[in-house]
Input
Amino acid sequence: EVQLVESGGGLVQPGGSLRLSCAASGFTFSNSAMSWVRQAPGKGLEWVSTYNNYKTTRHYTDSVKGRFTVSTDNAKNTVYLQMNDLRPDDTAVYYCNSGRIWGQGTLVTVSS
Output
């Protein structure tokens, strides 16, 4: 079965850190581009980051550059999003995406 399963969300204080994980199955992970997309409450989808597993390149939206890092573990078919110095406006449901495949999302809440 082709699927993406996210984990690692939660409640964190401003300035804190979280690491999201996305486990992939059912497709060739090592040749795929893996993205993180978020949706803040009441807003539309916002692309956050992409790791091109084939070209080993990383891309980030401007608002997270220097704070978020995307990486993969091909042995585990897993993509990670390390999020540091979190801000209240990072609060969102974070989705893992590869082409037409979407995970179920994991909620990140940044609040004191």
The longest strand covers residues 18-25.
